[in-house]
Design goal:
By secondary structure, the protein is of the alpha+beta class. It is about 25% helix and about 30% strand. Strands 7, 8, 9, 10, 11, 12, 13, 14 and 15 form a 9-stranded mixed sheet that branches. Strands 2-1-6-5-3-4 form a 6-stranded antiparallel sheet.
Amino acid sequence: MKAGSACVDGVVTDLANAKLPVWDEAFLSGWTVFETLRVENGVPLYLDRHLLRLERSAASAEVPMPKWKRLMEEVEEVLQGWLSLGRLRITLTGSGRRVVTVEPLDPAVVNGPVRVSMALGAWDPALGPTVKHGNRMGWNLLLKRSGGDDLLLTDSKVLVESVRGAVWAVIDGELWTPPEDQRSLPSISRAVIVERAQRLGIGVRRDYPPLQGWDALYISSSVRDLCPVVELDGRPLSGLERIGRALSVGVVQP
């Protein structure tokens, strides 16, 4: 299996040999926007949706946005010959640089269990919660201290989102997930899973889950899909149940 590939400003290399100037102010300050998504059999899933969100993030963060055609060509170059499961990331910087990378993804993380902790949401004062930006030191530090896989962000009354994805709850046999509003990042995985639920005849309530009183919790992202929460703040939870099992995608390797 390939260790990974990168395309930096149009130059393709092995991931280990990709380089950026150490003086790049945008990277030093975290002035970046990005998207991550899963690659299956050489296909970047829902790439158009991710490029649209990237474009919106770039506009809000005043980051130069290249033409879609250029980014799609660089994604194609990076994925040349890539047939295994992968994690693709597209990063744009305030200094105008473009970085596209792909690396192997462990199939076990797709629909795999996660351990989480709750934290009070604190979003960037200049950008708010709707921009996918690269300045994540505070969240990453809290995550490291928690020892878990993700952080559930709250407003002290309801579950809003997680650091790495959208939040879901099963309450009295009904699936809840927040609406698309200005309180959280517009979630591509949520939109995809809502569409999947509709095809399966599973109802979805678009509302913020409460801090307690649910039967099961899930986190979703474009890389990991829908993942059951098996531990919250050190307390075991039920994990995968009937609805989550029906919505899990499964991954078939070539």
